[in-house]
Specification:
The protein is α/β, with parallel strands linked by helices and 241 residues long. Helices cover 31% and strands 32% of the residues. The strands form four sheets. It has a five-stranded parallel sheet with strand order 2-1-3-4-5, with helices on both faces.
């Protein structure tokens, strides 16, 4: 299994260091590198890599800005020269982080996590054109940032021109419309309940009949969702109710 990797790093010395470490592993293939965020976005969108080695602290735009610009975030390993960034990276659900200069041992440990993650992603046989339950999206709301697996999201909800995302006990804003989000979601687990909300059917706690042929759903996080009459018929068929 070849792991196709890209590097986005403003330091040529750091890029060369990573390239030498990559050469030591037969299952790693470097397919491109970029020295800034804008180049990195173009590279990632054109090549769709499995793995991204991403410098956090870059001039003008940083690594978090890059993640926010992507629809589908590759497996991400942050690289940084600063301890405070390394600690914060866990808050953003990065797979791992590497402190510069990167040692062979620490690189190998990160790569083992990447391999395990790749196996998990390969087990998902959903359409390649859509996100899968193991795909990640990056959400930045104010100063808080998250890398969130699609399968961990229970509900999407319209708020003006944007979308509120429900996962764990969090409800951050995603700066995309609900229609944009819906186009990418796996149809086997996500359902448009009404004009305002899309639910993850794996997070439904309870279903009860409601007024005028509608259904009312209670989600595992306690949120209540009213399914429109038209969508209620489709939902019953989909769920064999």
């Amino acid at each position: 299994m070849k792991i196709r990797a890209v590097i986005v790093e403003d330091s040529r010395l750091a890029r060369n260091e990573l390239k030498e470490l990559i050469k030591l592993h037969d299952d790693l293939e470097l397919i491109g590198e970029a020295s800034n965020v804008d180049e990195g976005v173009v590279l990632i969108e054109s090549e769709s890599p499995d793995l991204l080695f991403l410098d956090i602290n870059m001039p003008e735009k940083d690594g978090f800005d890059l993640l926010e610009m992507l629809d589908d975030v590759p497996i991400t390993v942050f690289t940084t020269a600063y301890d405070e960034y390394a600690i914060k990276s866990f808050e953003y659900n990065a797979l791992d982080y590497l402190l510069k200069p990167v040692s062979n041992k620490r690189f190998d440990m990160a790569l083992e996590k990447v391999r395990a993650k790749m196996v998990s992603k390969q087990e998902d046989n959903s359409s390649a054109k859509k996100l899968t339950k193991n795909s990640q999206i990056f959400i930045k709301d104010g100063e808080a940032c998250w890398l969130v697996k699609i399968g961990d999201i229970s509900l999407f909800e319209i708020v003006g021109n944007y979308t509120r995302v429900f996962f764990e006990d969090k409800k951050p804003m995603l700066y995309k419309s609900l229609n944009q989000v819906e186009e990418k979601l796996p149809e086997d687990s996500f359902f448009r309940a009404n004009r305002q909300q899309i639910i993850n059917t794996n997070y439904i706690e309870n279903v009860v009949p409601w007024f005028n042929g509608k259904l009312k759903l209670t989600m595992k996080n306690g949120e209540e969702v009213e399914v429109s009459r038209r969508q209620s018929y489709i939902f019953k068929d989909k769920m064999s109710l």
